[in-house]
Protein backbone atom coordinates (compact mmCIF):
# COMPACT_ATOMS: atom_id res chain seq x y z
CA UNK A 1 0.00 0.00 0.00
CA UNK A 2 1.33 3.44 -0.97
CA UNK A 3 0.21 6.04 1.56
CA UNK A 4 0.31 9.66 0.38
CA UNK A 5 -2.39 11.07 2.64
CA UNK A 6 0.27 13.13 4.42
CA UNK A 7 4.00 13.44 5.04
CA UNK A 8 3.23 12.56 8.67
CA UNK A 9 2.87 8.89 7.69
CA UNK A 10 6.61 8.56 7.07
CA UNK A 11 8.65 6.05 9.05
CA UNK A 12 11.95 6.96 10.76
CA UNK A 13 14.98 6.14 8.66
CA UNK A 14 17.49 3.52 9.73
CA UNK A 15 19.92 6.35 10.47
CA UNK A 16 17.34 7.87 12.81
CA UNK A 17 16.62 4.55 14.53
CA UNK A 18 20.34 4.01 15.13
CA UNK A 19 20.75 7.54 16.47
CA UNK A 20 17.79 7.08 18.81
CA UNK A 21 19.15 3.78 20.09
CA UNK A 22 22.57 5.26 20.77
CA UNK A 23 21.41 8.68 22.04
CA UNK A 24 23.11 10.10 25.09
CA UNK A 25 20.32 11.16 27.45
CA UNK A 26 19.61 12.94 30.71
CA UNK A 27 16.56 14.55 32.32
CA UNK A 28 15.59 17.51 30.18
CA UNK A 29 13.07 18.87 32.71
CA UNK A 30 16.05 19.72 34.88
CA UNK A 31 18.07 20.68 31.83
CA UNK A 32 20.71 17.98 31.56
CA UNK A 33 19.89 16.02 28.41
CA UNK A 34 22.88 16.65 26.09
CA UNK A 35 21.11 15.47 22.92
CA UNK A 36 18.18 17.79 23.54
CA UNK A 37 20.66 20.60 24.11
CA UNK A 38 22.32 19.78 20.80
CA UNK A 39 19.15 19.88 18.70
CA UNK A 40 18.12 23.12 20.35
CA UNK A 41 21.48 24.63 19.44
CA UNK A 42 21.02 23.38 15.86
CA UNK A 43 17.51 24.84 15.63
CA UNK A 44 18.58 28.24 16.90
CA UNK A 45 21.53 28.35 14.50
CA UNK A 46 19.51 27.18 11.50
CA UNK A 47 16.95 29.95 11.95
CA UNK A 48 19.30 32.64 13.20
CA UNK A 49 17.57 33.00 16.57
CA UNK A 50 18.99 33.24 20.09
CA UNK A 51 17.36 30.14 21.54
CA UNK A 52 15.28 27.07 20.73
CA UNK A 53 12.93 24.71 22.56
CA UNK A 54 11.83 21.22 21.53
CA UNK A 55 8.13 20.38 22.01
CA UNK A 56 6.02 17.33 21.30
CA UNK A 57 4.08 18.68 18.33
CA UNK A 58 3.41 21.61 16.04
CA UNK A 59 0.20 22.34 17.91
CA UNK A 60 2.10 22.48 21.20
CA UNK A 61 4.66 24.84 19.63
CA UNK A 62 1.85 27.10 18.39
CA UNK A 63 0.08 27.23 21.73
CA UNK A 64 3.33 27.59 23.67
CA UNK A 65 4.33 30.49 21.43
CA UNK A 66 1.03 32.29 21.92
CA UNK A 67 1.15 31.74 25.68
CA UNK A 68 4.67 33.19 25.73
CA UNK A 69 3.95 36.25 23.58
CA UNK A 70 0.51 37.35 24.81
CA UNK A 71 -1.68 37.80 27.86
CA UNK A 72 -5.24 36.68 28.40
CA UNK A 73 -8.01 38.90 27.03
CA UNK A 74 -5.80 40.14 24.22
CA UNK A 75 -6.31 39.64 20.50
CA UNK A 76 -4.15 37.97 17.87
CA UNK A 77 -4.36 38.24 14.09
CA UNK A 78 -4.43 34.95 12.17
CA UNK A 79 -5.04 33.80 8.61
CA UNK A 80 -8.68 32.77 8.26
CA UNK A 81 -7.54 29.46 6.71
CA UNK A 82 -4.69 28.85 9.14
CA UNK A 83 -4.03 25.68 11.12
CA UNK A 84 -3.92 27.65 14.37
CA UNK A 85 -7.41 29.02 13.82
CA UNK A 86 -9.14 26.00 12.32
CA UNK A 87 -7.43 22.81 13.44
CA UNK A 88 -6.31 23.13 17.06
CA UNK A 89 -9.60 22.45 18.88
CA UNK A 90 -10.17 26.11 19.85
CA UNK A 91 -7.00 26.07 21.94
CA UNK A 92 -6.37 29.77 21.33
CA UNK A 93 -9.51 30.51 23.33
CA UNK A 94 -9.56 27.55 25.69
CA UNK A 95 -5.87 27.38 26.63
CA UNK A 96 -4.36 30.74 25.72
CA UNK A 97 -7.37 32.89 26.58
CA UNK A 98 -6.94 35.12 23.53
CA UNK A 99 -9.42 36.26 20.92
CA UNK A 100 -8.46 35.27 17.38
CA UNK A 101 -9.11 37.85 14.69
CA UNK A 102 -9.17 35.95 11.38
CA UNK A 103 -8.34 37.91 8.24
CA UNK A 104 -8.52 36.61 4.67
CA UNK A 105 -5.07 35.90 3.27
CA UNK A 106 -5.27 34.35 -0.20
CA UNK A 107 -2.21 32.21 -0.76
CA UNK A 108 -1.01 33.12 2.73
CA UNK A 109 -0.64 36.80 1.83
CA UNK A 110 -2.39 39.46 3.89
CA UNK A 111 -3.58 42.67 2.31
CA UNK A 112 -1.24 44.95 4.24
CA UNK A 113 -3.74 47.80 4.51
CA UNK A 114 -6.39 45.43 5.82
CA UNK A 115 -3.88 43.94 8.23
CA UNK A 116 -2.96 47.34 9.62
CA UNK A 117 -6.60 48.36 9.99
CA UNK A 118 -7.17 45.24 12.10
CA UNK A 119 -4.45 46.01 14.63
CA UNK A 120 -6.59 47.09 17.56
CA UNK A 121 -5.34 49.58 20.11
CA UNK A 122 -6.18 49.31 23.83
CA UNK A 123 -9.52 50.82 24.84
CA UNK A 124 -12.10 50.19 27.53
CA UNK A 125 -14.17 47.91 25.27
CA UNK A 126 -11.42 46.42 23.11
CA UNK A 127 -9.16 43.40 23.24
CA UNK A 128 -5.88 44.94 22.04
CA UNK A 129 -3.83 43.20 19.36
CA UNK A 130 -0.68 41.68 20.84
CA UNK A 131 0.46 39.25 18.12
CA UNK A 132 0.34 38.77 14.34
CA UNK A 133 0.60 35.19 13.07
CA UNK A 134 1.77 33.89 9.71
CA UNK A 135 1.91 30.38 8.24
CA UNK A 136 4.54 29.05 5.83
CA UNK A 137 4.00 26.92 3.87
CA UNK A 138 0.40 28.07 3.79
CA UNK A 139 -2.65 25.79 3.70
CA UNK A 140 -1.90 22.17 4.55
CA UNK A 141 -3.99 21.11 1.53
CA UNK A 142 -1.95 23.18 -0.93
CA UNK A 143 1.53 23.78 0.52
CA UNK A 144 1.88 27.32 -0.86
CA UNK A 145 5.12 29.23 -0.39
CA UNK A 146 4.99 32.64 1.29
CA UNK A 147 7.92 34.67 0.00
CA UNK A 148 10.37 36.63 2.13
CA UNK A 149 9.22 39.98 0.76
CA UNK A 150 5.73 39.45 2.14
CA UNK A 151 6.97 38.12 5.46
CA UNK A 152 9.21 41.16 5.84
CA UNK A 153 6.37 43.52 4.89
CA UNK A 154 4.07 41.98 7.51
CA UNK A 155 6.82 42.26 10.12
CA UNK A 156 7.37 45.92 9.22
CA UNK A 157 3.68 46.71 9.72
CA UNK A 158 3.41 44.80 12.99
CA UNK A 159 6.69 46.03 14.46
CA UNK A 160 5.79 49.63 13.64
CA UNK A 161 2.90 49.14 16.06
CA UNK A 162 5.05 47.37 18.65
CA UNK A 163 3.50 43.98 17.91
CA UNK A 164 5.60 40.80 17.52
CA UNK A 165 5.16 38.32 14.65
CA UNK A 166 4.95 34.55 15.05
CA UNK A 167 5.42 32.20 12.10
CA UNK A 168 3.79 28.78 12.25
CA UNK A 169 6.47 27.07 10.22
CA UNK A 170 5.36 23.44 10.37
CA UNK A 171 6.63 23.04 6.80
CA UNK A 172 8.79 26.17 6.62
CA UNK A 173 11.81 24.16 5.48
CA UNK A 174 9.81 23.15 2.40
CA UNK A 175 9.35 26.86 1.70
CA UNK A 176 13.05 27.57 2.24
CA UNK A 177 14.06 24.74 -0.09
CA UNK A 178 11.55 25.84 -2.75
CA UNK A 179 12.94 29.39 -2.58
CA UNK A 180 16.55 28.12 -2.40
CA UNK A 181 16.96 30.35 0.64
CA UNK A 182 18.61 29.88 4.01
CA UNK A 183 15.90 29.51 6.71
CA UNK A 184 17.61 32.21 8.78
CA UNK A 185 17.28 34.64 5.88
CA UNK A 186 13.66 33.71 5.16
CA UNK A 187 12.69 34.18 8.81
CA UNK A 188 15.07 37.06 9.50
CA UNK A 189 12.49 39.55 10.81
CA UNK A 190 10.05 37.10 12.37
CA UNK A 191 10.24 37.23 16.18
CA UNK A 192 9.40 33.57 16.85
CA UNK A 193 9.16 30.65 14.42
CA UNK A 194 8.30 26.96 14.75
CA UNK A 195 9.22 23.89 12.73
CA UNK A 196 7.61 20.45 12.76
CA UNK A 197 10.04 17.51 12.80
CA UNK A 198 7.43 14.81 12.11
CA UNK A 199 6.34 15.89 8.63
CA UNK A 200 8.75 15.94 5.69
CA UNK A 201 11.75 15.36 7.95
CA UNK A 202 10.27 11.92 8.82
CA UNK A 203 10.86 12.04 12.59
CA UNK A 204 8.40 10.08 14.76
CA UNK A 205 7.53 13.06 16.96
CA UNK A 206 8.56 16.58 17.80
CA UNK A 207 8.62 20.25 16.89
CA UNK A 208 11.04 23.14 17.46
CA UNK A 209 10.30 26.68 18.61
CA UNK A 210 12.93 29.37 17.96
CA UNK A 211 13.13 32.96 19.19
CA UNK A 212 14.70 35.38 21.67
CA UNK A 213 16.16 33.96 24.88
CA UNK A 214 13.56 35.58 27.14
CA UNK A 215 10.63 34.31 25.05
CA UNK A 216 12.02 30.78 24.86
CA UNK A 217 12.68 30.81 28.62
CA UNK A 218 9.00 31.61 29.18
CA UNK A 219 8.03 29.04 26.55
CA UNK A 220 9.88 26.37 28.51
CA UNK A 221 7.64 27.11 31.50
CA UNK A 222 4.52 27.15 29.32
CA UNK A 223 5.51 23.81 27.78
CA UNK A 224 5.80 22.36 31.27
CA UNK A 225 2.34 23.66 32.13
CA UNK A 226 0.93 21.91 29.07
CA UNK A 227 2.49 18.60 30.13
CA UNK A 228 5.23 18.74 27.54
CA UNK A 229 8.26 18.45 29.78
CA UNK A 230 10.67 15.82 28.47
CA UNK A 231 12.58 13.45 30.69
CA UNK A 232 14.93 11.42 28.47
CA UNK A 233 14.00 13.57 25.49
CA UNK A 234 17.29 12.88 23.77
CA UNK A 235 15.86 9.69 22.30
CA UNK A 236 13.42 11.79 20.26
CA UNK A 237 15.84 14.67 19.73
CA UNK A 238 18.35 12.28 18.14
CA UNK A 239 15.93 11.59 15.29
CA UNK A 240 15.40 15.33 14.87
CA UNK A 241 19.14 15.94 14.58
CA UNK A 242 19.29 13.45 11.70
CA UNK A 243 16.26 15.02 10.05
CA UNK A 244 17.66 18.54 10.25
CA UNK A 245 20.96 17.34 8.81
CA UNK A 246 19.16 16.16 5.67
CA UNK A 247 16.51 18.87 5.26
CA UNK A 248 17.73 19.83 1.78
CA UNK A 249 16.53 16.40 0.62
CA UNK A 250 13.02 17.89 0.73
CA UNK A 251 13.77 19.07 -2.80
CA UNK A 252 13.29 15.45 -3.89
CA UNK A 253 9.72 15.50 -2.56
CA UNK A 254 9.01 18.67 -4.54
CA UNK A 255 10.28 17.02 -7.71
CA UNK A 256 8.06 14.00 -7.10
CA UNK A 257 5.07 16.30 -6.58
CA UNK A 258 5.72 17.99 -9.93
CA UNK A 259 5.93 14.65 -11.73
CA UNK A 260 2.81 13.39 -10.00
CA UNK A 261 0.82 16.54 -10.75
CA UNK A 262 1.72 16.53 -14.44
CA UNK A 263 0.83 12.85 -14.72
CA UNK A 264 -2.52 13.40 -13.00
CA UNK A 265 -3.30 16.31 -15.28
CA UNK A 266 -2.59 14.12 -18.30
CA UNK A 267 -5.18 11.65 -16.99
CA UNK A 268 -7.85 14.37 -16.92
CA UNK A 269 -7.71 15.14 -13.20
CA UNK A 270 -8.21 18.80 -12.34
CA UNK A 271 -4.78 20.12 -11.33
CA UNK A 272 -3.58 23.70 -10.91
CA UNK A 273 0.13 23.35 -11.64
CA UNK A 274 0.81 26.83 -10.23
CA UNK A 275 -0.38 25.48 -6.87
CA UNK A 276 2.19 22.68 -6.82
CA UNK A 277 4.96 24.68 -5.17
CA UNK A 278 6.28 22.18 -2.62
CA UNK A 279 5.30 18.58 -1.83
CA UNK A 280 1.49 18.95 -1.81
CA UNK A 281 -0.78 18.18 -4.77
CA UNK A 282 -4.48 19.06 -4.67
CA UNK A 283 -6.74 17.21 -7.10
CA UNK A 284 -10.20 18.20 -8.33
CA UNK A 285 -11.83 14.87 -9.21
CA UNK A 286 -15.08 16.40 -10.45
CA UNK A 287 -13.36 16.55 -13.86
CA UNK A 288 -13.56 12.75 -13.99
CA UNK A 289 -17.13 12.63 -12.64
CA UNK A 290 -16.19 11.54 -9.13
CA UNK A 291 -16.52 12.89 -5.62
CA UNK A 292 -13.61 12.91 -3.20
CA UNK A 293 -14.83 10.21 -0.84
CA UNK A 294 -15.67 7.84 -3.68
CA UNK A 295 -12.39 8.51 -5.46
CA UNK A 296 -10.30 7.83 -2.35
CA UNK A 297 -12.25 4.68 -1.50
CA UNK A 298 -11.82 3.35 -5.03
CA UNK A 299 -8.17 4.35 -5.19
CA UNK A 300 -7.41 2.43 -2.01
CA UNK A 301 -8.66 -0.77 -3.66
CA UNK A 302 -5.86 -0.23 -6.19
CA UNK A 303 -3.23 0.14 -3.46
CA UNK A 304 -2.97 3.91 -2.91
CA UNK A 305 -4.24 5.97 0.02
CA UNK A 306 -5.08 9.64 -0.55
CA UNK A 307 -7.04 12.12 1.58
CA UNK A 308 -10.39 13.73 0.74
CA UNK A 309 -10.30 17.40 1.72
CA UNK A 310 -13.53 18.68 0.20
CA UNK A 311 -16.57 17.44 -1.72
CA UNK A 312 -14.49 17.02 -4.90
CA UNK A 313 -10.98 17.82 -3.69
CA UNK A 314 -8.33 15.25 -2.77
CA UNK A 315 -4.87 15.79 -1.29
CA UNK A 316 -1.71 13.85 -2.08
CA UNK A 317 1.54 14.67 -0.28
CA UNK A 318 4.89 13.41 -1.50
CA UNK A 319 7.45 12.34 1.10
CA UNK A 320 10.63 10.34 1.50
CA UNK A 321 8.80 6.97 1.66
CA UNK A 322 7.31 7.65 -1.80
CA UNK A 323 10.20 6.96 -4.13
CA UNK A 324 10.50 8.39 -7.63
CA UNK A 325 9.85 4.87 -8.92
CA UNK A 326 6.50 4.76 -7.10
CA UNK A 327 5.06 7.81 -8.87
CA UNK A 328 4.16 5.85 -12.05
CA UNK A 329 2.53 3.21 -9.82
CA UNK A 330 0.34 5.90 -8.25
CA UNK A 331 -0.61 7.19 -11.70
CA UNK A 332 -1.49 3.68 -12.88
CA UNK A 333 -3.73 3.24 -9.83
CA UNK A 334 -5.48 6.56 -10.54
CA UNK A 335 -5.99 5.59 -14.18
CA UNK A 336 -7.59 2.29 -13.16
CA UNK A 337 -9.69 4.10 -10.59
CA UNK A 338 -11.17 6.59 -13.03
CA UNK A 339 -11.78 3.94 -15.69
CA UNK A 340 -14.21 2.22 -13.33
CA UNK A 341 -15.35 5.05 -11.02
CA UNK A 342 -17.77 4.75 -8.14
CA UNK A 343 -21.00 6.69 -8.73
CA UNK A 344 -20.54 10.39 -7.99
CA UNK A 345 -22.57 12.00 -5.24
CA UNK A 346 -25.70 13.77 -6.35
CA UNK A 347 -24.82 17.26 -7.46
CA UNK A 348 -21.34 16.47 -8.78
CA UNK A 349 -21.33 17.74 -12.34
CA UNK A 350 -19.54 15.69 -14.98
CA UNK A 351 -17.75 17.70 -17.62
CA UNK A 352 -16.59 14.84 -19.87
CA UNK A 353 -19.88 13.16 -20.75
How are the SSEs placed, and which strands pair?
Layout: E1 2-3, H1 14-22, H2 34-47, E2 51-55, H3 58-69, E3 75-79, H4 83-86, H5 91-94, E4 99-103, H6 112-117, E5 129-135, H7 148-160, E6 165-168, H8 172-179, H9 183-186, E7 192-196, E8 207-211, H10 213-225, H11 234-245, H12 250-266, E9 280-284, H13 292-301, E10 304-305, E11 307-308, E12 313-317, H14 327-339
Parallel strand pairs: 1-10, 3-4, 3-5, 5-6, 6-7
Antiparallel strand pairs: 2-8, 7-8, 9-12, 11-12
Helix pairs in contact: 1-11, 2-11, 3-10, 12-14
Structural class: alpha/beta
How many β-strand runs?
12
What is the name of the CATH class of the largest domain?
Answer: Alpha Beta
Most strands sheet: 7 strands, mixed
State the domain count. 2
Number of helices: 14
Q: Low-confidence runs (pLDDT<50, min 5 residues)?
A: none
Outline type:
globular
Look at the structure and name the CATH superfamily of the largest domain: Type I PLP-dependent aspartate aminotransferase-like (Major domain)
Amino acid sequence: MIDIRSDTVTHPTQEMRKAMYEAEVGDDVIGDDPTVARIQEMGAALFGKEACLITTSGTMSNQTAVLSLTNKCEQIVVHDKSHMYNLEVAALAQICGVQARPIPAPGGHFDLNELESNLIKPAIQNAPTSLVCLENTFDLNQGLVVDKAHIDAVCEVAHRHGIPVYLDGARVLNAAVALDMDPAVLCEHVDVVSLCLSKGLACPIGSLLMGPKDVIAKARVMRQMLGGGWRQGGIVAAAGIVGLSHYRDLKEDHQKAQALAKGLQALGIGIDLDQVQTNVVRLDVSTVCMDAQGFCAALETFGVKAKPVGPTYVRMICHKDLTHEMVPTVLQAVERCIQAPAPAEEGIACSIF
